[in-house]
Design brief:
Blueprint (H helix, E strand, L loop, with lengths): L10 E3 L5 E3 L2 H23 L13 H13 L4 H15 L3 H24 L10 H29 L8 H25 L11 H21 L9 H6 L2 H32 L10 H92 L1
Antiparallel strand pairs: 1-2
Helix pairs in contact: 1-2, 1-3, 2-4, 2-6, 3-4, 4-5, 5-6, 5-10, 6-9, 6-10, 7-9, 9-10
């Protein structure tokens, strides 16, 4: 009997590992949910100082799309296309321009996901230097070129921007999408299937202290009055050691959570006209702010990835050492068993052999006496 074949794309990961069939209705629900989240996040991003209405420096949908394709499967790409089409049509883009933008955003998400799956060896989490570097280079810096170029060209051909505004729109698009890939996507991937938080142990208290430190430092830095040009980077860089604390002590989860929290407070401060990166307009403020946050997120992610790799290497070495010690103990145990077995066998054989030897000695003596009589 021929065995029914299952389409790999129709499988979803079981919470405990393995795969479970995903129905067509389930896929449709995920596609629509992704499109809805994309529209909501996109509309929120376009409220924050967009350049020529359609390009925003705070663009979470890029990170959401990348994480969704990696977690639920690349077959959810229609959700990205539908969400991008709806958010741009609702903003006032012509249908053809909106379709071009949706095509670029979908291709961007697929390119980033395939790069992480093929080149980064992404399986269940983002832990490890290799997937993080692929995320930074292939997704955050390279795949975003697709959406920025296609999107800006679609607006130019549709008459929504002038030729002289192309580069500014392209730069805003690329930086906003890159920040989404480096700040939003790692957070969703790091907490994928995260276990329930521990109770009030010492580590939980440290995590609470870390979150409090990030919030307080971010409020002091990004809600302060603008400072001089020379002191801007110095003031903002005071946040970096706290973010490194999260990466060193709590790995990828600590790194992504602290960066996301600090980024949210920083964007809030910029909308209020506060912080070290304030410029004449909100879009200019966000340009400097997102550049700083993207570079900071890159450094923190790399540190967390190196820590994760070292931790796995230590665990592998420890497991190998334990296996060697267990093998040595087993060898000693077997040697002891062998010695006891030989002692038992020797004792058990000694009695009958002694009787045989004694019998042979008597027989030889008896034969010798008989010969002497003859």
């Amino acid at each position: 009997m021929a065995q029914a074949r299952t389409d790999p794309s129709s499988l979803e990961e079981h919470p405990r590992g393995g795969s479970a069939p995903r129905s067509a209705l389930g896929r449709l629900a995920l596609v629509l949910a992704l499109a809805a989240v994309y529209v909501l996040a996109g509309r929120a991003g376009l409220l924050l100082g967009p350049v020529h209405v359609f390009a925003s420096l705070v663009w979470a949908p890029t990170g959401i799309s990348l994480a969704a394709l990696l977690i639920f499967g690349t077959e959810l790409w229609p959700g990205v296309a539908l969400g991008a089409l709806l958010v741009n049509v609702s903003t006032g883009a012509p249908l053809l321009s909106a379709a071009g933008i949706a095509f670029g955003n979908t291709l961007e998400a697929l390119a980033g996901a395939f790069a992480l799956l093929r080149l980064g060896g992404f399986r269940r989490s983002l832990d490890g230097l290799r997937p993080v570097l692929v995320l930074i280079v292939a997704a955050g810096a390279s795949s975003t070129l697709i959406a920025a170029t296609v999107g800006a060209a679609s607006l130019l051909l549709g008459g929504r921007i002038a030729r002289g505004d192309f580069f500014e729109t392209w730069r805003t698009w690329w930086l906003g999408d890159g920040a989404g890939d480096l700040i939003v996507a790692p957070l969703l991937l790091a907490f994928r299937g995260a276990p329930a938080p521990p109770r009030w142990t010492r580590r939980a208290l440290e995590a609470a202290a870390l979150c409090g430190a990030v919030v307080v430092a971010s409020l002091l830095i990004f809600l302060s009055l603008p400072v001089s040009e020379a002191g801007r980077f110095i003031e903002a860089s005071l946040l970096v050691p706290i973010l490194m604390w999260g990466a060193l002590r709590f790995g990828m989860k600590g790194a992504t959570a602290t960066v996301f929290l600090a980024s949210g407070i920083a964007v809030w401060g910029a909308t209020l006209g506060r912080g070290p990166f304030v410029q004449a307009t909100l879009s200019q403020s966000l340009l400097f702010l997102q550049s700083f946050m993207a570079s900071t997120a890159t450094a923190v992610l790399v540190v967390a990835a190196v820590i994760a790799d070292r931790g796995r290497a230590y665990e592998a070495e420890r497991a190998s050492r334990l296996r060697a010690e267990a093998a040595e103990a087993e060898a000693k145990r077997l040697a002891g068993v062998q010695e006891r077995l030989l002692a038992v066998v020797g004792h058990d054989l000694r009695n009958p052999l002694g009787a045989i030897v004694a019998g042979l000695s008597l027989f030889r003596k008896h034969r010798r006496d008989q010969l002497e009589r003859w």
